[in-house]
Every structure is written in structure tokens, then in C-alpha cells.
UniProtKB/TrEMBL annotation, chain A:
One of its GO terms (biological process) is cell adhesion. It is found in: Cell junction, Adherens junction; Cytoplasm, Cytoskeleton, Microtubule organizing center, Centrosome, Centriolar satellite. Belongs to the ADIP family. Residues 286-317 are annotated as: Disordered. This is Synovial sarcoma, X breakpoint 2 interacting protein a.
TrEMBL record, chain B:
SMART domains: WD40. SUPFAM superfamilies: YVTN repeat-like/Quinoprotein amine dehydrogenase. Gene3D superfamilies: YVTN repeat-like/Quinoprotein amine dehydrogenase (2.130.10.10). This is WD repeat containing, antisense to TP73.
Length: 542, 477
């Protein structure tokens, strides 16, 4: 559109631009021209006809005046030449136009300035933004650098610390070495001084001797020579003697070595025995457990069998052959090591089993221990009780002994005790007397009884004799006599036996001997009261 | 425990004869020989000058008195008091004098260790041994008396000469690998000779009787080394005490270290018993005191003491030695084995108040005895495992595995026990003070021993305490 206008109105452009060409910007020129060309070109009349037409000229004029007033140009007004005329008065119109141009120019200038400002500002803004980003980058970079530096600083600090500690240790060592050197130096100087003093003394002595020249000979003054300590004569110094000395020396050395070797051999043998025993015991411990343990591998038992076989075979051979063979010793130590390893593994396994298995199994091991501990507790309590008891007894005893040391009360107590004892003794004595009396009485009774008994016996014997006599006599054909005499058996006894002569005498003799044989061996035991008096063997004198 | 009365002596010269019957003491220039049991004077000899050294011969028949100032040695006979023998070293001077093991030869070391002169009392013959070394222990006789080892220094090198004491025949002469040989000692079985270097180098060399080097032992370098060496009576162990406050034990089969005993200032973590001497203050102002004490002597000066068992940890007082001085007072200076080789007693010089007793069977510390003053001397009973020690005060201390005893020596005027010696039978002790000596008889039930004797049985009160806790031993076992 702009191009069309420029080509169209190039002539008018030239004219107008010659008026306002100073203040117009070239970029705006075309627009201005285009704006100016509106009212001038007739061909484009229809386009601008929206505002002013021939009909509304006064309205336009008033409107324009109003606009001018509002713009602050009240002084210039557009007037019509005459009311109802389409023409305008040129002067105010030109003035108005000039004012408007001025205004326009001014606003253009302002606009230009503003644009310039804006450009400037935008450029500064850009510049600032750029610099901002640049600075931000720089800042980031510098922060990173700073952290890097921090890192290096920290490392350097660490290094410093280690170096310082190294330095410290070195210093300490240096100090120690210095002290060692110092002590050595002082020792050396001390020794050197001592030697120097000795040398000085030597020199003095030498000078003294050179001056003196009166050498006091060394001599020994003995009353009489002594014999040797062992009483033997002194030997001549011969090569034989020297060689014998050598022999003696070697002999003593050898005997010492032999003695030590013997003791070492004994020790060795003992240790070997101990090792073998240990090995046997270990094997014994391991072998019965094999079937019961879980997880016992096949090769373990294999090994066990191998070793068993080897041990059984090897033992015999080892005992018979020389035991100091390296091979045998190594074998023994290796087998012991193996057994020990196995035992240790086994124990470890048991331990782990014990902790991981259920309570029962572990309790089995715990309960015995518990009972064991309970028993121990009980025993301890018992021991404590016994001790206390003994202590109490001791105390009481002590008290007793102590109380006896107190003179007055002791005497009193003693008196009391003796009195009591006396009383008791009196009582017992009385009892004893009583019993004695009783005994006497009874003895008397007994003797009387015995005498009586004797008499009765005698009478009984007589009766018996007479009865027997009668019996004997009644054994004769006189039967009625027998019957007669048997009823009087008892009374017959009381009759004296002197009535039947001859045969009766013989019978009585038989009877008497019979009685004699029977009666004397009777024992009479008397008992009276509660006390048992000794039983008497009483021989009735016939 | 009975104490005899106090006798005079000078120079700590008081020795019991090897057969245990006689006691010889030197008082100024007199030599007094007494009977041990009755303490009666049997013989009295007068020497020409103050006696510096006195020694019995091995057969207990002769006594040697050496006077170093005059260069004289006088020998006295017990059986024949009028027998005399005088050895004059002349202008060459005398530094040390000793008997040979057969009791018929005297070895005199001249001044400056120029030579060792061997005087024979049987033949009046003289032999010389050249270039003897002047060191801590340059001459040692084997226990059976057959051989003598002598350290020699020739052309700035150390040698060892082995002589046969019978006829002084030089059996072996070999060089040792030491910088500066400080001492040598035969093992009790007479087959091994231990040789050690001076303290500037830790080196202990073991030579067999025929001069072969068996082994070398060196624990560390540069710091001060060996301070003391001791063989166990069974010849099984060699104990080496050094300046680093440790004792190292070598065994006789491999000559390697089997253990080392340390002496820390703070004792902790051990099953040993620590006995600490505690002084009991005398009860001032009690009624029983006055008369008793006036007759007994001032008990204010003779404080009683007893041992207490201290619970661990225990701190032992340490005295730091002067670092600038030579031969600093630090390190193990005294080692003593008991007669059955069961125990070893040691003393660390910077803990001078403590004596450490080690059990050689268990190779561990058995007991520590801490005294109130510095321990002067300790010695084992020749027969039993019983240790007697003295600390320069008026008390005698005894240790045995069963416990510890502190005994007050009951003498008037305060008798400070400086050193002690056991009688060879282990029944009595000889206590030596500065100028006095006193005998202490151990067995009190042998009454007939003291019939008709001159010794006054004085009361001695002692407090037995510090019996080992039975619980402790139970736990340890």
C-alpha cells in the first residue's frame, strides 16, 4: 500500500517534504505522506470520506475545534469563511495545521526519543542480562573452584597432621638417641677419666720408682711349707700332665652333655607317651560319638578308620623299632594334629547344635548342672549351719570356761554344784542303805527259808524213802497190802524208816542214794522286790 | 629367733668358715676367731696394719688377711696359732688378694692390674699371669675348684684364659667377641662360661669349657646394656639384668630367651602379693611403757613395723636418676636365685625400696616387698627358700613363700643393719652394721644349743602378718 502511495504521489511528496523534511524521519515520511495524501488525492477520497463530507463540514469544523481545544490549541480555531460555505478560512486553518504539525513534530521527536530510550534500555537490558548470565556462570565456576580448593586444603591439612606426627615421632626418636648418646658419652668420658687417672698414677709411680731405685723385692716369708690340701705329693709338670688335663676337661664336658642328653631323652620319652595317650583318648572320644552325631560325613569316618588302622599297625611297629626316626615323630605329631582338629570341630558342632536345637536336649545338659548347683548350694548351707553350730558351741564352751574364771561366782557356783552333788549322793547313799537292809532281811529270810526247805526236804526224803520202801514191799504178791499202802502213800512218808529191817535197809540205801543223786544238784534262785540279787547255787547239805 | 650380743668389727669384714664352725672378724688390725655356737673367742691374731680384706681358705684351716695400703698379705693358721706367713708384694702394690680353691695358693693382683702373682704356700714358688683385665669381675673359679677363668686384655682385644687350678697350667686361651669385657662367670656345673660386655654394649657370650663359642645373646643395641648376671644353682637358667629395668632369662639348652621380667612402677594385673612395710607408731602415754622401755632402749627411735598386704594396683616410688652422670642408678643391679632355683629375687635401682621375688616354675611375679627405706642387702638361705633382707635400719626382714616377717633387732643404742650373711647351715644370720655385728639364730626350739653360752636371750617382739590370702592362691590354682 505504501508503495502505491509513493509512486502515485511522488510529486506531492517532494513538495511536502520540502516543508517538513528537517523534522521528519525518513521512516515516517512515507506514512506521513500517505496520511497527507489522503485529503489531496481525489482518487482516494472514498477512503477518507468517513469523516468529512460536503454535508457535514460545520460539524467537522466544530468537532475539529473541539479536538483542538482539547489538545490545548484554543487559540487557533478553524472557521469557515462564511456560514454555510464549504470553504475554510485559510489563516486559522493553516495555523491550526501548523500547530498540529508542531505538535506532531514534537510528539514525533518524543516518540523518537522514547524509541531511542527504549532501544537503549533494551540494549542495556540485554547487556545486563548477558552480563548476569556471564556472572552467574562465573559464580558457579568460582563456587566449584572454591569447593575444589576446600578439598585440597583439607587434604593438605591431613597431610600436615601426618607429617607433624611423623615429625613428632622423629623428634622423640632423635631425643631418645640423643639421650642414649649422652649416656654413652658420659660413660665414655667417665671411663676415659678413670683410665687417665690410672695412667697418671702409673706415671707417678714410675717416676717414683725411677727416683727411688731401692726396689723392695717381693718376697714371701713362711714359717714352714704346708702340705697340699689333699695330702698328695706335688706332680711334675709334664706333657703327660697337660694331656691328662685336657682329657679331664673333655671328660667333664662329655659327662655334662651326657647327663643333659639323658634328661632330655627322658623328657622326650615322657612327652611322647603323653602325646600317644592323648591321641588314644582323643580317638576314643571321637569314635563312639560317630554314629550319634548328625552330619558326620562319610569321609570323616573314612579318615577315622584309616587312622585307626594306621595307629593300630603303627603303634606296634613304633614301639618295637627306633622311636627317634624323624618319620615316626612326624607321623605322630601329624596324627595328633588331625585328631585334635577333628575333636575341635566336633566340639564346635556340638556347641552349635546345643544352641540351635530344641530345649529338651539343651535342658538335658542344663538340668544336671542345675541339680549339681542345687546340691552344691545345699551342701554349702549345710556347711554353714555346721559352722554356726560349732561356733555357737564354742561360744557356749567359752562362756562356761570364762564364767569359771570369775572367782567369787565360780566358787559360789562350785559350792552350789558340790552341794547338789552331795545331796544327790546322800540320797543315793540312803537308797543304797535301804536296799542293803532289804537285802539283808531277805537274805535272812532266804536262809531261814532255805533251812526250812532243808528240813522239809529231809522230811520229804524220809517220806519218799518210806513210800518207796512201801512200794517195793508192795511189789510182793501181797496185793491188798499194796492197795492199802498206796492210799497211804503220803502219810507213809512221814513214818520213820527205821521199821523195816534187812531188806528194807538195802532198799532204803538204794532210795537214799537215789535221793542223794537227785536232790543236791538243785539250783535255787531267789528274787525279791525289783532288784535282782544274784542267784545262788545252793547245795543242800544232806 | 634369738639374737646374740653385739660385737665390734671394722670394714664389714666378718666371715663364717666354710665348714660353718668358726666366725672370723676383723677389728682394726686384729683378727678375732670365734666359735659360731658359743661365740667364745678361740684365737686372736694381730696383723701389721689395718686389714682391707679377709678370707677363709676352703678347708677352713687358714685365714688370709690382706692389707692393701702396705701391699702385705698375712696368712694365719687355726690349728697352729704360731704358724705365720707373710707375703710382701713390694713396691708393685696390691689391689686384691684371694685364695685358690685348694686353699694352698694365694692370688694377688698388683696395682694397676699389671699382673696376677700366684704364691704357693706349699713350695714358696711364684707364678705370674700377665695382662689381667681390670674389670667388674675378671677372675672366677669354677664351683668344683678345678678351673679358673681369667679375663685378659692384650693389644686392645679381650681374651679369656682358662687355667687348671691343680698346677696352674694354661688349658685354653681364646679371644672373645666383646668390645670391652666386663665380667665372666662359670655355670655351677662348670661346663659353660658366661662372658658379658660392658654396659655400652648389650652382649652376653657363652663359651663351653673347651673354648668354643656356644651362643651369643644381645637384646638390643645402643642403650645401656647388661648390669648384672647370675646363674641359677641348677645351671638351667642364666638371668641377665640390664639398664632397661628388665631381667631376661636364657635357658641352658638353646641359650635363647625364654622370658623377661619387667619392673613397672605401677603393679597391676598380676597374681603376686605386694607386701608393704607399715610402721606402727609406739603408743605414747600408755601406762605399760616406761620401765620396760628404758631397759630396752629408746623405742621412740626403734619403731616397730609390720607388713600389710596391699591390694592392686600398687605404685612403687621411683627415683629418676641423673641423666648426665655415668653408671646411672637405674636397672637391675642385684639378682639372686634361691638354692633350689625356684625363686629369683631382683632389685631395680630406681625403685630402691622394693625387692621383687619371681617364681621360676611359673615364670611370673610371686611377691613384691616394699620397704620404708632403701634396701641395702638381701640374701637367700643356703638351704631353704627363705630370703633375708635389710634396709639400713634396725630391722631384719624375712620372706618365705608362707609370708613375711619384720623383726626388730633388739640391741641398745640402735644397730643399723647394713648387710647380712647366712650361715652355711641356714640356721643363723650374721648381721653387719657400720662398726658392729650381731648374730641371729633362727631355730628357737633347739634349747641345748644355747646351754652355757654367752648370748643373752633378749626379748624380741615381732609381728607376723601378711600371710598369703588363701583365696588368692585358690583362685590362682
Amino acid at each position: 500500500m505504501g508503495e502505491w502511495w509513493t509512486t502515485e504521489t511522488s510529486m506531492e511528496n517532494y513538495e511536502i517534504s520540502s516543508i517538513s523534511h528537517v523534522t521528519m524521519s525518513p521512516s515516517r515520511r512515507n506514512n506521513l505522506v500517505s496520511m497527507y495524501s489522503f485529503p489531496l488525492s481525489k482518487s482516494s477520497y472514498s477512503v477518507i470520506s468517513a469523516f468529512c463530507t460536503e454535508d457535514n463540514i460545520p460539524q467537522c469544523i466544530s468537532y475539529i475545534n473541539q479536538e483542538l481545544a482539547s489538545l490545548g490549541l484554543s487559540s487557533t480555531c478553524i472557521e469557515a469563511i462564511s456560514p454555510g460555505d464549504t470553504g475554510l478560512s485559510t489563516v486559522p486553518a493553516l495555523n491550526a495545521m501548523y500547530e498540529l504539525l508542531q505538535i506532531h513534530r514534537r510528539s514525533m521527536c518524543n516518540l523518537e526519543e522514547l524509541e531511542r530510550e527504549q532501544l537503549r534500555k533494551s540494549s542495556t537490558l540485554e547487556h545486563i542480562q548477558m552480563s548476569n548470565t556471564r556472572l552467574k556462570d562465573q559464580l558457579e565456576l568460582s563456587i566449584r573452584e572454591k569447593s575444589g580448593l576446600h578439598e585440597t586444603e583439607r587434604q593438605l591439612q591431613l597431610k600436615i597432621k601426618t607429617l607433624q606426627s611423623c615429625l613428632k615421632t622423629e623428634k622423640d626418636e632423635v631425643q631418645k638417641l640423643q639421650s642414649v648418646i649422652a649416656s654413652r658419652a658420659s660413660q665414655y668420658s667417665h671411663d676415659a677419666k678413670r683410665k687417665e687417672r690410672e695412667a697418671v698414677k702409673l706415671k707417678e709411680r714410675l717416676s717414683q720408682l725411677l727416683i727411688d731405685r731401692k726396689d723392695k723385692k717381693l718376697a714371701i716369708d713362711v714359717l714352714n711349707c704346708l702340705g697340699r690340701a689333699d695330702g698328695k705329693r706335688r706332680h711334675w709338670k709334664t706333657t703327660k700332665a697337660t694331656s691328662s688335663h685336657e682329657d679331664e676337661m673333655y671328660k667333664s664336658l662329655l659327662s655334662d652333655y651326657e647327663a643333659s642328653q639323658r634328661s632330655l631323652m627322658l623328657e622326650n620319652a615322657e612327652l611322647k607317651k603323653v602325646l600317644q595317650q592323648m591321641k588314644k583318648e582323643m580317638m576314643h572320644i571321637l569314635s563312639p560319638r560317630q554314629p550319634s552325631t548328625r552330619g558326620a560325613t562319610a569321609d570323616d569316618s573314612q579318615e577315622q578308620a584309616d587312622l585307626d588302622g594306621e595307629a593300630k599297625g603303627g603303634d606296634a611297629s613304633r614301639e618295637s623299632l627306633d622311636q627317634y626316626c624323624e618319620h615316626a615323630r612326624e607321623q605322630l605329631t601329624n596324627s595328633i594334629r588331625q585328631q585334635w582338629r577333628k575333636l575341635r570341630n566336633h566340639v564346635e558342632r556340638l556347641d552349635s547344635q546345643g544352641t540351635s536345637q530344641n530345649q529338651l536336649e539343651s535342658n538335658k545338659e542344663v538340668i544336671p548342672r542345675e541339680t549339681h548347683e542345687d546340691e552344691m548350694e545345699r551342701m554349702r548351707c549345710e556347711v554353714q549351719q555346721c559352722r554356726e553350730f560349732i561356733h555357737a558351741q564354742q561360744q557356749l564352751l567359752q562362756q562356761q570356761l570364762n564364767t569359771s574364771f570369775d572367782d567369787e561366782t565360780a566358787a559360789l557356783l562350785n559350792d552350789c554344784y558340790t552341794l547338789e552333788e552331795k545331796e544327790r549322793l546322800k540320797e543315793e547313799w540312803r537308797l543304797f542303805e535301804e536296799q542293803k537292809r532289804n537285802f539283808e532281811r531277805e537274805r535272812k529270810n532266804f536262809t531261814e527259808a532255805a533251812i526250812r526247805l532243808g528240813r522239809e526236804k529231809k522230811a520229804f526224803e524220809e517220806d519218799r524213802a518210806s513210800w518207796l520202801k512201801n512200794q517195793f514191799l508192795n511189789m510182793t504178791p501181797f496185793t491188798h497190802r499194796r492197795r492199802y499202802s498206796s492210799s497211804d502213800g503220803q502219810s507213809a512218808l512221814s513214818i520213820s524208816n527205821g521199821k523195816i529191817p534187812g531188806l528194807a535197809c538195802f532198799q532204803t540205801k538204794i532210795l537214799a542214794t537215789l535221793c542223794m543223786n537227785i536232790l543236791p544238784r538243785q539250783f535255787l534262785s531267789l528274787r525279791f522286790g525289783n532288784t535282782e540279787v544274784a542267784s545262788f547255787a545252793y547245795l543242800h547239805p544232806l | 629367733m634369738n639374737f646374740s650380743e653385739v660385737f665390734k668389727q671394722t670394714n664389714q669384714l666378718c666371715k663364717v668358715s666354710p665348714d660353718g664352725k668358726y666366725l672370723a672378724t676383723c677389728v682394726q688390725y686384729r683378727l678375732v676367731v670365734r666359735d659360731v655356737s658359743t661365740l667364745q673367742i678361740l684365737q686372736l691374731y694381730t696383723c701389721l696394719d689395718q686389714v682391707s680384706h679377709m678370707e677363709w681358705s676352703s678347708d677352713s684351716l687358714f685365714i688370709l688377711c690382706a692389707m692393701y695400703n702396705r701391699g702385705l698379705v698375712q696368712v694365719w693358721s687355726l690349728e697352729q696359732p704360731d704358724w705365720h706367713c707373710k707375703i710382701d708384694e713390694g713396691s708393685i702394690g696390691l689391689v686384691s688378694s684371694r685364695w685358690s680353691p685348694d686353699g694352698r695358693h694365694i692370688l694377688n693382683t698388683t696395682e694397676f692390674h699389671l699382673r696376677v702373682t700366684v704364691w704357693s704356700l706349699c713350695t714358696k714358688a711364684v707364678s705370674y699371669i700377665k695382662y689381667p683385665k681390670a674389670c667388674q669381675k675378671g677372675i672366677d673359679f669354677s664351683r668344683d675348684g678345678r678351673y679358673m677363668a681369667l679375663a685378659e686384655r692384650r693389644d686392645c682385644k679381650d681374651y679369656v684364659c682358662v687355667f687348671v687350678c691343680d698346677d696352674w697350667h694354661l688349658l685354653r686361651h681364646f679371644e672373645t667377641e666383646t668390645q670391652d669385657l666386663a665380667g665372666l662367670e662359670w655355670s655351677p656345673n662348670g661346663c659353660v662360661l658366661a662372658v658379658w660386655d660392658s654396659c655400652l654394649e648389650y652382649k652376653v657370650l657363652l663359651y663351653s669349657l673347651d673354648g668354643r663359642l656356644l651362643s651369643t645373646y644381645s637384646a638390643y643395641e645402643w642403650s645401656l646394656g647388661v648390669k648384672s648376671v647370675s646363674w641359677s644353682p641348677s645351671s638351667q637358667f642364666l638371668a641377665i639384668g640390664s639398664y632397661d629395668e628388665k631381667v631376661r632369662i636364657l635357658n641352658h639348652i638353646t641359650w635363647k630367651k625364654i622370658t623377661q621380667f619387667e619392673h613397672p612402677a605401677i603393679i597391676d594385673n598380676t597374681k603376686a602379693t605386694v607386701y608393704k612395710e607399715a610402721e606402727k607408731r609406739p603408743g605414747v602415754g600408755s601406762d605399760e611403757m616406761p620401765l620396760h622401755n628404758i631397759t630396752m632402749g629408746a623405742t621412740l627411735f626403734n619403731t616397730q613395723s609390720k607388713y600389710e598386704i596391699c591390694p592392686l594396683p600398687v605404685q612403687i616410688p621411683v627415683v629418676k636418676p641423673d641423666p648426665d652422670r655415668a653408671s646411672p642408678k637405674i636397672g637391675i643391679s642385684v639378682l639372686a636365685f634361691s638354692s633350689d632355683s625356684r625363686y629369683l629375687a631382683t632389685k631395680n635401682d630406681n625403685m630402691a625400696t622394693a625387692v621383687w621375688v619371681w617364681d621360676m616354675q611359673k615364670m611370673s611375679l610371686e611377691a613384691v616387698l616394699e620397704q620404708t627405706s632403701a634396701v641395702r642387702c638381701f640374701q637367700w638361705d643356703p638351704l631353704r627358700p627363705r630370703l633375708a633382707l635389710c634396709a639400713g635400719n634396725t630391722k631384719l626382714y624375712l620372706w618365705s613363700p608362707g609370708g613375711c616377717v619384720s623383726v626388730q633387732v633388739p640391741t641398745e643404742g640402735g644397730f643399723q643393719v647394713q648387710s647380712l650373711n647366712w650361715h652355711c647351715s641356714g640356721d643363723s644370720l650374721i648381721l653387719l652394721g657400720k662398726e658392729q655385728l650381731c648374730l641371729c639364730y633362727m631355730d628357737t626350739d633347739q634349747e641345748d644349743k644355747f646351754k652355757g653360752t654367752r648370748c643373752r636371750l633378749l626379748e624380741c617382739s615381732f609381728f607376723l602378718s601378711g600371710l598369703k590370702h588363701s583365696q588368692q592362691t585358690q583362685h590362682s590354682s
